Amino acid sequence: MLAAPRDRWFVGEGFRRTGPLDFEQLIQLLLDEADPRAPLVWHKGFGSWTRAEDVPQVERRLTPVLARAASVEAIRRAGRDTPTLDQTAAVDDGKPGSATLVYGGLGAGVIALALVGWLLWPRPQPMPAPVVVPPAPARTPVAVPPPQVPPAGRPSPRAVSARPASAFAEREAELPPAEVRKLRGVAAWSDETLALTLDNPTAWRVTEIRVRVSRLAGDEVVQDAGPLVLLPPAPPVAPGVADLLERVAPGRRKPGLNPFDTGSFEAKVGPPPEGFRWEIESARGYAPLELVERAASAPPAR
Predict the structure, then answer these.
(1) Could you list the residue range(s) of the whole structural domain that residue 30 is in?
(2) Quick one: pLDDT at residue 159?
(3) Which of 56, 79, 102 is at the close of a domain?
């Protein structure tokens, strides 16, 4: 039986999902998991898939059930510490007046007296060991290397380090995969525009990102055939002006996001789907000059 249209819940694992479910079916399905708070759930009105523990109404239902299960487990474990029949018999042997208690008390008294005598018996004090001061090691002169002169045609390290952090290469390039994996952001769909607020922790000036989107279509999650290209928002330019600028200044700098900064990227990609997931697949930008010069000064591979 399908859930009511206003109570359609889905549980997702990777690109597979289960649903639609009503709320009670959702809770029962989560409680069957090893960690009921970990699965991703979705309901109409959510911007993206969300962990079950981050949905207040789901967390309120899971908390008392999980607390009750933890209490039952604690009681069950405590039952393992109940004394056995042999242990109970051993305790009964220690009742007042029993032979075990009498002889045990006498033995404990003898041991206590022997311990007190051993502690109070005087002992000879050891003689202090003589203190030997080693001679100071002889100082050896330290050779100071002569200043190194960089080869002709290469900038000195001091000149490279003195260059401002805003110096970038003249041409755009693809960000290395290791730098792309550092990019983080938050995406939102507004009308026909997909906007992504990007956090750029790399040393590159990012001018373009390519995002792969998976959309919820009915009861299926469908991944786009190709990535969507998102650019920083800029004032519109007439096609003729853009063509003229490309011919006059083909190497002009494009607007982008500076290193260690946060900014917006967007693109018109059509009406919003019922739900979606996204990931940054690749990016372009201007590399820092230090990286370009380091690559240029590296010896060629043999």
Answers:
(1) 5-79
(2) 47
(3) 79
Count the Cβ atoms, other than its own, within 10 Å of residue 154: 12
Res. 139 pLDDT band, cuts 50 70 90: low
Q: Please state the separation of Cα 109 from the chain's center in Å.
A: 62
Amino acid at position 199, single letter = D
In the numeric block, the tokens 């525009």 are attached to 193
Straight-line distance from the first to the last Cα atom of the chain, in angstroms, rounded to the nearest whole number: 68
Tell me if 255 is assigned to some domain. Answer: yes
Largest CA distance in the chain: 112
Within a domain: residue 97?
no
Treating both helix axes as pointing N-terminal to C-terminal, what angle do 56-79 and 23-31 enclose, rounded to 10 degrees? 40
CB 217 within 8 A of CB 160: no
Sorted by sequence, the CB contacts under 8 Å of residue 298 that are 6+ apart come out as: none
> What's the chain's length in residues?
302
Q: Distance (Å, rounded) from C-alpha 55 to C-alpha 52?
A: 6
Higher pLDDT, 247 or 208: 208
pLDDT of 231 over the 80 cut: yes
* Euclidean distance between CA atoms 25 and 7, whole angstroms: 11
Instruction: Give pLDDT, residue 161.
Output: 43
If phi > 0 it is left, if psi is from -120 to 50 it is alpha, else beta; for residue 204 that is: beta
The angle formed by the CA atoms of residues 179, 222 and 281, to the nearest 5 degrees, is 10
Helices (H), 14-156: 23-31, 56-79, 85-92, 99-120
Among residues 182, 220, 223, 186, which one has the least CA distance to residue 200? 182
- State how far the Cα of 78 lies from the Cα of 60, in Å rounded to an integer: 28
Give dist(CA 195, CA 205) in Å, integer: 19
Backbone angles phi, psi at 149, to 5 degrees: -100, 125
Total number of domains in the chain? 2
Query: Could you say which of 30, 52, 79 is where a domain stops?
Result: 79
For the whole prediction, is pTM greater than 0.90? Answer: no
Alpha-carbon distance of 293 to 32, in angstroms, equals: 57
